[in-house]
């Protein structure tokens, strides 16, 4: 009897839910933009209207056929543009005042999830409606859980594409290299793989737990100990095993790489993108252009480290590496731009997340083409992800990911740091 009552109760609840869904009619919103940036045509348009139907851009133009009762959002004093995209964010890395070796092993996955949520809110409020995590420092899969909770509509945040970990060789940039070798339990990075068999297994494990992307530490790094940014971390056969395994599973793969040998090996193996590529030689830049390898230069972080270094916030060893990197980085970026490589915005935040949006202006300082820079953080990023059909520009049929700022970033890229309207998938996140 008890059981039957329960079943009836459940059936009633389901009925109500279904009725509510049925009653949930299509919603329309009309956004009136004083200025609108068409990143595909590289055109600044005036007095444009966007009709949003549920989560999609239904119409766009000087006039749109809004049904009666459509809610109007007046942005006639603002510049509308597509939702911004940060293709190199980390949600769980905190190195303020400590090294990663010191902080990472003290943070549980639950702790990281909470920090990650806070960071995602900041990113969305800044205008980033889509982010890619190119490996993060969590021993479990917190990034995947956050991605899925956002996709289910349970949490607010940017849509996420996730490489859960940065797969690294023993002693590489994704390992922790300063612990005593005689500890009763070794303290290591979350995903260490050496040799082709272990590499294939590591890629499969990432995919088993939900990876969209695979991330590889192809050289040493700047903010770590004992690994060398100039040395290739894996052999050519190992790089090939990584790319083959990822692509066979229809996943994309990216490499952290500073020195040319590591960049070159990853590009030759068919990696989809390269992060940092600080010390790229001209021939490697040309090969990237030829093969369509995307370049995520992460420029603001270099400025930030050097700035912190002056105030003594960075260790002498890290600062020495950063200076080496900074000297050649600007050259590599120019080289890549001249060679026709497609660049993508990625902030690599080891700084407060509010500053991630400064990557746009950091890129604009090095590249004399603000349309190129805006595309790097919108349509070019969507192309890198293979999602250009659904996001990356204000186009009919695409997701209603729309942001607006008081002034035009094409005139001065720093204006993008003042975004004060954010809509993601038809939902207004903020409108100040
Ligand atoms: Zn990074």
UniProtKB/TrEMBL annotation:
Q: Which residues cross the membrane?
A: none
Q: Which residues form the signal peptide?
A: 1-25
- Domain (Amidohydrolase-related): give its ranges: 81-428
Keywords for the protein's UniProt record, in alphabetical order: Hydrolase, Signal
- GO molecular function annotation: hydrolase activity, acting on carbon-nitrogen (but not peptide) bonds
Pfam families membership: Amidohydro_1 (PF01979)
Top-level lineage group: Bacteria
Database matches in InterPro entries: Amidohydro-rel, Metal-dep_hydrolase_composite, Metal_Hydrolase, Metallo-dep_Hydrolase, OTAase-like
Protein name according to UniProt: Amidohydrolase family protein
Origin species? Kineobactrum salinum
